[in-house]
Amino acid sequence: MTKAPQLKDDCFALPAGVNWTPVDDALAHLRAAVDLVVGVETVKTIAAGGRVLAHDAIATRSNPPYANAAVDGYGFAHLSYQDALPLVDGRSAAGAPFAGAVPAGFAIRILTGAKLPVGVDTVVMQEDVALKDGMVYFQHGLKAGANCRKAGEDVLKGQPAVKAGKKIAAAEIALMAALNIPEIEVYKKLRVGVLSTGEEIRQLGETAEPHQIYDANRPMLLELLKNWGFEPVDLGHAVDDHAAVISALDGAAKRCDAILTSGGASAGDEDHLSAVLAESGNLNLWRIALKPGRPLALGIWNGVPVFGLPGNPVAAFVTTLVFARPTLLKMQGAGWQIPNPILLPAAFEQTKKPGRREYLRARVTEKGAVEKFISEGSGRISSLSWADGLVELPDKAMQVKKGDMVRYFPFSGYGI
């Protein structure tokens, strides 16, 4: 097992004089700033679902391991192809191959997946023949090698079957099982802590006064992290107090590879997270040209990166998808992953001012257009449940009319 180095304390520093950071610049800076921070461990292939492959998985045998029939039918040498051929005694079946060779001018009964006997290079489907008196009668036009699978046509022994950096799912497990790869080396799960801050926060089930709110961010972020294959660590809640925030961060740094916080990420009187990071000399307060989700506090605490997300749940959700997800994936060895948009016609109209990129909560209609949520208010948490993706409007000013093509990012592209 190996342990990767920690990130540099100044990795999130922006160039001097930068005030508003465009989304693309912020993403490029994050991509360059972070690297792998977890070690490697060996796990059983059948238990590797959701893990990230650390080294290429090398095939220990070819797939298929031998030339075989792709259909139920009759096998023969194409050079002896004619209107009718006599059948040899016996057959070749999967798991019970024919022991001898098929002489030229003869055919053999063969079943799907069965090894091609010596002397057979072509198979005709059983639906395309007639049988009579020990003879098989053919139709014309069959090509050499028809209905046959070559040995190793899928994967050859000694070749990489699954490349490093791939997140293991059912398809990869099936392939590695077929190639007799019982164990693989994967990156350890990135341990990502989630800390809520704020005097107004109450926990689910507690009594809340009218001026207090229930913590929606921490449960939401913990579920997102679980979906992405990380190891979520519930760090609880810290009140608006310097000592409480410092204590929470000290404990988190001992348990986690990265920390997500919500609230206290701006520069107000009660933004203690930003203040604490600033006092340590490792605060970089980014103002992203983004709606929703302008403030993003980034820093290092005892060698562990801290992502200070906005306190508003919708803004926290969007900034986590856009910024935290690709960053954390790269830190876990899965590489930098940005989803690809789908161009769809707008079922809405929108006038957008220049200066900030906007992400609208949206969903696809039955007619294949994309509609936006009735309100752009970032406090409308119900919009996240209503939506099935985000529409991205560019930094420049624009006028969206119904039918115009817009960039739509389904939530599935973000792994949720």
Structure description:
With 416 residues, the chain is α/β, with parallel strands linked by helices. It has four domains: 20-39 and 188-331, 3-Layer(aba) Sandwich (Molybdenum Cofactor Biosythetic Enzyme, Chain A), CATH 3.40.980.10; 42-63 and 153-187, Molybdopterin biosynthesis moea protein, domain 2 (Alpha-Beta Complex); 68-149, Molybdopterin biosynthesis moeA protein, domain 3 (Beta Complex); 342-414, MoeA, C-terminal, domain IV (Beta-clip, Beta Barrel), CATH 2.40.340. It has seven helices and 29 strands. A seven-stranded mixed β-sheet has the order 1-19-21-22-18-14-17, with helices on both faces. The protein has a six-stranded mixed β-sheet with strand order 8-5-7-6-10-9, with no helix packed on it. β21 and β22 form a beta hairpin. α1 (23-33) packs parallel to α6. It is elongated. The mean pLDDT is 91.
Distance between the termini: 30 Å
According to CATH, the fold-level topology of the largest domain is Molybdenum Cofactor Biosythetic Enzyme, Chain A
Q: Taking strands numbered 1, 2, ... along the chain, how are they ordered across the largest sheet?
A: 1-19-21-22-18-14-17
Determine and state the CATH class of the largest domain: Alpha Beta
- For CATH, the homologous superfamily of the largest domain is named as MoaB/Mog-like domain
Question: Strand content of the residues, in percent?
Answer: 25-35%
The count of helical stretches stands at 7
| Residue windows where pLDDT falls under 50 for at least 5 positions | none
Largest sheet: 7 strands, mixed
Shape: elongated
Number of strands: 29
Percent helix, as a range, is: 10-25%
Mean pLDDT: 91
Please tell me the total number of domains: 4
Give Rg in angstroms.
Answer: 30 Å
